[in-house]
Specification:
Layout lengths: L1 E5 L13 E3 L5 H18 L7 H14 L3 E5 L9 E3 L18
Parallel strand pairs: 1-3, 3-4
Antiparallel strand pairs: 1-2
Helix pairs in contact: 1-2
C-alpha cells in the first residue's frame, strides 16, 4: 500500500520525491519488491546530476507499481490522476507539504 500527496499547483507529476510513503511491513514479499525497486532507482541515478532526475526515475520505476495500490490526497490535480481524494484538511494560504521553511 502506497500513499501519495499533491497539494500545490506545481505538483503535477504522479509522485513527488518526498511526498510518498509505503506500508512495507505487512507483507514480506512486498518488502523485498520495495528493496528491489529502491536499488533499481539508485542504480539509475549513480553519477548523474540532472535536475528533476529523481522525478523521472520515480515516474518510470515506482509509479507503475503504485497504481491500483495507493491512497492519493490531492488539492489541485484530482482530475489528472485517477483515484485521487481531496486533501483532508484546510491549509493556511501559502502552506503546502514540502514547503521550504527557514527558521532564524
Amino acid at each position: 500500500m502506497f500513499h501519495v500527496m499533491r497539494d500545490h499547483p506545481q505538483h503535477g507529476t504522479p509522485v513527488l520525491g518526498g511526498l510518498w510513503d509505503a506500508r512495507w511491513d505487512t507483507n514480506p514479499a512486498f518488502a523485498t519488491e520495495l528493496r528491489h525497486l529502491r536499488n533499481k532507482m539508485l542504480s539509475m541515478a549513480i553519477n548523474k546530476t540532472k535536475y528533476g532526475l529523481d522525478q523521472e526515475i520515480i515516474k518510470k520505476v515506482l509509479w507503475p507499481k503504485m497504481i491500483g495500490s495507493l491512497v492519493a490526497h490531492d488539492s489541485y490535480t484530482c482530475k489528472s490522476f485517477k483515484g485521487s481524494s481531496p486533501w483532508p484538511s484546510q491549509r493556511l494560504e501559502g502552506d503546502f507539504v514540502g514547503r521550504p521553511r527557514f527558521v532564524a
